[in-house]
Write a structure and sequence with these properties.
6 strands; globular; 112 residues
Length: 112
């Protein structure tokens, strides 16, 4: 998640997605308004909501809890915060990570 945070703070949404999310049509992103299915659609939504580095601001993650579910799955609860000129925003997240091809990737993201 630190590498994702760095990519975001460098204005690299593509890198943010590539580093942390399962590149699959089965990826699930649960937001405040709806559920998005698929890596590409999730990327498109991020780019629409954050069209440039100024809109992206500076991201900070705070991990509150990690629960190992199995050798290949863990559940993470945390908080996110964006510091931006247009106004700070933040919330909480729950993430389901799975170990896929020896990499820990987010397969379900519920952020609010």
């Amino acid at each position: 998640m630190e590498t994702q945070q760095e990519a975001w703070n460098n204005g690299d949404i593509d890198g943010f997605m590539q580093i942390g999310y399962w590149h699959s049509d089965s990826l699930q992103f649960v937001g405040t308004k709806s559920i998005t299915y698929g890596w590409q659609k999730t990327l498109d939504n991020y780019k629409k909501a954050y069209p440039n580095k100024l809109a992206m601001g500076v991201l900070n993650f705070s991990v509150l809890q990690i629960q190992q579910l199995s050798e290949n799955a863990c559940f993470v609860i945390g908080a996110w915060h964006l510091s931006r000129v247009s106004g700070n925003v933040g919330g909480h997240f729950t993430l389901l990570f799975k170990k896929i091809n020896n990499h820990w990737l987010i397969v379900v993201d519920h952020s609010s």
